[in-house]
Design brief:
Strand content: under 5%
Oligomer: single chain
Number of helices: 1
Order of helices and strands: H
Largest sheet: none
Shape: elongated
Helix content: 40-55%
Structural class: mainly alpha
Distance between the termini: 76 Å
Amino acid sequence: MEGSKERQGDFVFTAKEQGEYRFCFNNEMSTFAEKMVDFEIAVENESRDAQLPSKQGTSPEQTSALEESILKVSRDLSTINRNQKYFRTRENRNMSTVKSTEGRIFNFSVAESALMVSMAGLQVFIVRFFFQGARKGYV
């Protein structure tokens, strides 16, 4: 699986054998900028080895329906959990953008204020220069 210059994406990997697998992330494109990597590993189509204990007097159809209901609730909870994690990650990323933008706005407004004060001082200096002693003829 390869991806370059991608901000986000979904990758599907099908394991051919049982065992441990490793992930490698490369940051050669921009080693100067800090990156945050968030990923989730989901196992799908996993065989159901665990079976619910069956009571005496219950038919296999009842137990099977109960198992399907439990699996559906489990899938729905997993979806909700994934969505919550996604929204938290998105909120953190957007908050980082907001803080960065606030800093830039503050720096720009300080520079703008300093420029306005210096322009006012320059205007006062020019007006005083025109009205001083021998230079009154310029006005």
